[in-house]
C-alpha cells in the first residue's frame, strides 16, 4: 500500500514584512525536509516565500490561483491550479491541506482560518491572528513560536488525525 502524502496549507498575506517572509520561507524548507507537500494561494508575499523555501529543499509546491492565468503563479509554484474564483479559492486552499499554517496575514488569511476551523482542519498560527469569543481568548488557533514548532505541530496533528 502506498503511503499518502502529507499536505500542509500555508496561508498569509500577498504582501508581508521581510521578517514574515523569513518565517514563511523557513516553514517551506521545514515542510520539504519532512516530505510534506505545500499548498497555498500561489501568489506573492507569504505564499511566494513559503514556496521558495520548499523549492530550495526539493519539495513539492501547489498554488491554487484566484484568476484564470497560470502565469500569475509565483515562480516557485510547481503545480498551478487555475480557478478563476477570486477569494472563493481560499476554501480550496485550506480544504486541500490536512493542517494549515498561518503566517502573518490580513482579512483574507482570517477568512481562510475560519474556513479551516469550520472544517475541523487544525490551524497553527505563527505571528498571525488570535481570536476571542465573549471577551475570552479562543484557543482554536494553535500558537507556534518558530517555523520549526509550527511544522512540528502541524505534522503532529495530522498523525493524531490519521492514527499513524
Account of the protein in words:
This protein is an alpha/beta fold. The protein has a single domain, classed as Rossmann fold, CATH 3.40.50.450. Helices cover 38% and strands 22% of the residues. The protein is built from five helices and nine strands, in the order E-H-E-H-E-E-H-E-H-E-E-E-E-H. It has helices at 18-33, 46-56, 89-96, 107-118, 147-162, and strands at 7-11, 37-40, 61-65, 79-82, 99-103, 123-126, 131-133, 136-138, 141-143. Strands 4-3-2-1-5-6-9 form a seven-stranded parallel β-sheet, sandwiched between helices. Helix 1 (18-33) links the parallel strand 1 and strand 2 (37-40). Helix 1 (18-33) runs parallel beside helix 2 (46-56), helix 1 crosses helix 5 (147-162) and helix 3 (89-96) packs across helix 4. The chain is globular, with a radius of gyration of 14 Å. The model has no long low-confidence stretch (mean pLDDT 95).
Amino acid at each position: 500500500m502506498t503511503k499518502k502524502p502529507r499536505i500542509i496549507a500555508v496561508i498569509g498575506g500577498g504582501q508581508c514584512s521581510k521578517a514574515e517572509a523569513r518565517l514563511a520561507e523557513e516553514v517551506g524548507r521545514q515542510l520539504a525536509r519532512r516530505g510534506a507537500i505545500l499548498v497555498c494561494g500561489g501568489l506573492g508575499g507569504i505564499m511566494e516565500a513559503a514556496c521558495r523555501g520548499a523549492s530550495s529543499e526539493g519539495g513539492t509546491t501547489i498554488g491554487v490561483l484566484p484568476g484564470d492565468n497560470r502565469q500569475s503563479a509565483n515562480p516557485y509554484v510547481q503545480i498551478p491550479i487555475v480557478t478563476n474564483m477570486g477569494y472563493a479559492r481560499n476554501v480550496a486552499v485550506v480544504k486541500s491541506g490536512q493542517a494549515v499554517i498561518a503566517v502573518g496575514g490580513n482579512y483574507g488569511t482570517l477568512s481562510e482560518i475560519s474556513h479551516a476551523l469550520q472544517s475541523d482542519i487544525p490551524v497553527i498560527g505563527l505571528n498571525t491572528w488570535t481570536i476571542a469569543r465573549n471577551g475570552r481568548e479562543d484557543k482554536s488557533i494553535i500558537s507556534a513560536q518558530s517555523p520549526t514548532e509550527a511544522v512540528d505541530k502541524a505534522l503532529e496533528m495530522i498523525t493524531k488525525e490519521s492514527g499513524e
